[in-house]
Design brief:
8 strands, alpha+beta
Length: about 200
């Protein structure tokens, strides 16, 4: 009887937490929609579409943040990046879903590119990988599914919309691994012949 009551209490607490989180996220979304409206010259959000069969964590940084560190290595997620699975706004995108707020900024991208950085780094991590190995392993071993290195011109060309796997419209932007690594469902494409790659080949 006691075990049954304890289980019921735990389930109730879990349900309350889930409901509270949903309400908070809804309120945040409403606030963002009312205060931060995109127009032709002001973009506060970059909608991201997950076209794979698994969940993804998506978050961003900048090249300038990397270069602040004297031992800069492009293939290591620096320690200032926090575990995306613990992000209060939840950076996890379910299979087949699009998230408008995962790459949200309070200052529009057009202005931010002008004074803060010239390259936006977007990191994409398989949720199963992060939840299996943990953030420290993903960060230090660079278990990143994909990274996009985007200029303001890239975002304008793409109409401020991103997806994974990269669409054909994205094949000209700098990314690692290079365009063509994944098929339309996000599976790694096996290649028999290795060809020289362009600017997309380096992480």
């Amino acid at each position: 009887m006691n075990d049954s009551l304890l289980t019921t209490k735990q389930n109730t607490v879990k349900q309350i937490r889930t409901t509270t989180k949903t309400v908070l996220l809804t309120l945040v979304a409403i606030l963002m929609q009312s205060c931060y409206k995109d127009d032709a010259n002001h973009h506060f959000r970059i909608p991201f579409k997950n076209n794979t069969g698994h969940s993804l964590y998506v978050f961003s940084g900048s090249k300038e943040q990397y270069l602040m560190f004297p031992h800069f290595q492009d293939t290591i997620l620096q320690s200032y990046y926090c575990d995306p699975s613990k992000d209060t706004l939840n950076t996890k995108i379910r299979p087949g879903k699009e998230d408008e707020y995962v790459l949200f900024l309070r200052s529009c991208y057009e202005e931010t590119f002008g004074y803060a950085y010239d390259t936006l780094l977007v990191f994409i991590i398989n949720a199963d990988t992060l939840e299996k190995y943990g953030w420290d392993s993903v960060r230090t071993c660079y278990k990143v599914e994909q990274r996009y290195d985007l200029s303001l011109e890239d975002l304008q060309y793409l109409d401020f919309k991103l997806c994974f796997p990269p669409s054909e419209a994205m094949k000209g932007i700098r990314m690692w691994p290079p365009y063509g690594t994944y098929d339309e469902e996000g599976n790694v494409v096996e290649r028999r012949n290795t060809q020289k790659t362009t600017k997309n080949n380096k992480p």
